[in-house]
Design brief:
Blueprint (H helix, E strand, L loop, with lengths): L10 E5 L5 E8 L2 E3 L2 E3 L6 E3 L5 E5 L5 E4 L4 E4 L13 E5 L4 E3 L2 E2 L18 E4 L3 E8 L13 H14 L4 H11 L4 H8 L3 E3 L19 H5 L17 H14 L4 E4 L11 H14 L4 E6 L4 H10 L3 E6 L4 H8 L6 H13 L3 E8 L7 H14 L3 E6 L4 H5 L12 H11 L4 E3 L7
Parallel strand pairs: 14-15, 15-16, 16-17, 17-18, 18-19, 19-20
Antiparallel strand pairs: 1-2, 3-4, 3-11, 5-13, 6-9, 7-8, 10-13, 12-13
The protein binds iron/sulfur cluster (SF4).
Length: 435
């Protein structure tokens, strides 16, 4: 167990317009649960993980704890920082880390929408360096940047494009690997671990934080920010899917084949193609985990995919409560009840059932949300929860809801409660190879 970091040794951070990050000489680091700032507890603090990024939040003044007045106050001026308005600083943590607190800033002066990143609290300790509020929730190291050598990736791309020049899916994945630096796509060209199989150009949801689609008008008005990925614009044939999947299953360590990627709509709308694919693979081999990441909006399709030979399903949810789900997912022609029915069908069909839980401090750990989540985990016998840090502008997210989120218990306590009440439940960040 590493030594606890004393919150009194961690100072608040600001940035100036020269791009310099400065720590306050006396005011302490704060974090935010929802839009409420608070002091972090020692057990919530860890050194900022390698491969984290730092962001400046223009027009969002940072808050710090002033030990003299014992108040949380905005940092408007700081000796040596210059006379221009000071900005808040946030961290973006690498995959595998579960964020406990948002950056403590005020958003009132900001007239733009922050891009789709998961902003986390960050401070400075002379002893440790940068410090954040998080824990490593998944021990799987296969998604760490050090394992992705782009020279090898490019060699793999050249090899695959030469082998299958007409395969549209391999062409698409080569762009994902080289332009978007998608680790799953790089895995395919490196012949190991989880390989992506995007199949769907469309979606029947309209998530506020969708990585592959943002409404043009909303982007124009600044209400939302541009999507970070282009959606696939064709449905791969079974042959194209097999040319990717079968060689991967043959050569890869822990092969997982996953439908439902950031560069597509929702694969459930192409369940027919997925079923054809699964039957074709299982006629050839029993090896590999066939997985689908989805909004699970169509229960009959979930049953069909289970019967066709898929092994696991990961269902995307920001909440176990309809009133919190609807404003974010903005479903088109499906209901929250259908998603719940899909959880039941998945279990009945023998699928490994994971939740892609979109976690937001101040929402996910609020009293009513926690109770609903515990009931859902118990009712549907969830196998794994992937505690995903929701990538969105916190102000934009909180403005979605009419209802309040009261009595947050802290993400760290939510994790403890899930582990205590469901010893068999796996908590993590990544899809599992099921052997
Ligand atoms: S379900 Fe996925 S693809 Fe569809 S809108 Fe939401 S994030 Fe985008």
């Amino acid at each position: 167990m590493s030594k606890l970091i004393n919150p009194d040794s961690v100072y608040a951070l600001v940035a100036n317009n020269k791009g310099e990050i400065l720590d306050h000489p006396t005011w302490k680091m704060l974090g935010a649960s929802g839009l409420e700032s608070r002091r972090p507890e020692a057990r919530e603090l860890i050194p900022l993980p390698e491969a984290s990024r730092l962001f400046f939040l223009p027009d969002c003044p940072a808050l710090g704890f002033d030990p003299e007045s014992r108040k949380n106050r905005p940092i408007n001026r700081l000796e040596g920082a210059g006379n221009t308005p000071l900005k808040g600083v946030a961290a973006f943590l690498p995959p595998a880390y579960s964020r406990f607190l948002l950056p403590a800033v005020t958003y009132n002066k900001k007239a733009y929408t922050l891009p789709l990143w998961a902003y986390a609290a960050v401070g400075w300790s002379d002893e440790v360096g940068y410090v954040t509020c998080a824990c490593r929730i998944d021990k799987n190291r296969q998604w760490e940047a050090e394992f992705f050598d782009d020279v090898e990736v490019v060699a793999g791309v050249d090899e695959q494009l030469a082998l299958y020049p007409d395969n549209r899916l391999i062409n698409h994945l080569s762009r994902c690997a080289v332009d978007y630096h998608c680790f799953a796509a790089k895995n395919f060209f490196l012949g190991r671990w989880e390989c992506p199989l995007p199949v769907s150009p469309t979606c029947n949801a309209n998530c506020i934080g969708c990585l592959s689609f943002q409404e043009e008008e909303a982007v124009k008005t600044g209400e939302s920010c541009p999507a970070s990925h282009e959606r696939i614009d064709f449905v791969p044939s079974v042959q194209e899917l097999l040319e990717v999947a079968l060689p991967h299953i043959e050569v890869a360590e822990n092969p997982v084949l996953s439908f439902g990627q950031g560069c597509e709509g929702d694969p459930i709308l192409q369940a027919g193609r997925i079923c054809e694919f699964a039957r074709a693979v299982r006629r050839v081999t029993t090896r590999g985990t066939l997985n689908v990441n989805t909004n699970a909006s169509l229960p009959d399709k979930v049953t069909a995919m289970a019967q066709a030979g898929m092994d696991s399903i990961r269902v995307s949810l920001n909440s176990a409560r309809e009133r919190t789900y609807l404003p974010y997912y903005r479903p088109r022609n499906y209901t929250f009840a259908k998603v719940m029915e899909s959880l039941e069908r998945a279990k009945k069909g023998g699928l490994h059932l994971a939740l892609n839980l979109l976690v937001m401090p101040g929402v996910t750990d609020s009293e009513d949300e926690v109770n609903a989540l515990l009931q859902l985990v118990d009712k549907y016998k969830i196998n794994q929860i992937q505690m995903r840090n929701l990538c969105i502008d916190p102000r934009q997210y909180f403005d979605l809801f009419q209802h309040k989120f009261s009595n947050p218990i802290g993400i760290i306590n939510l994790i403890d409660r899930l582990r205590r009440e469901f010893p068999k439940l796996k908590l993590g960040y990544f899809n599992r190879y099921l052997g």
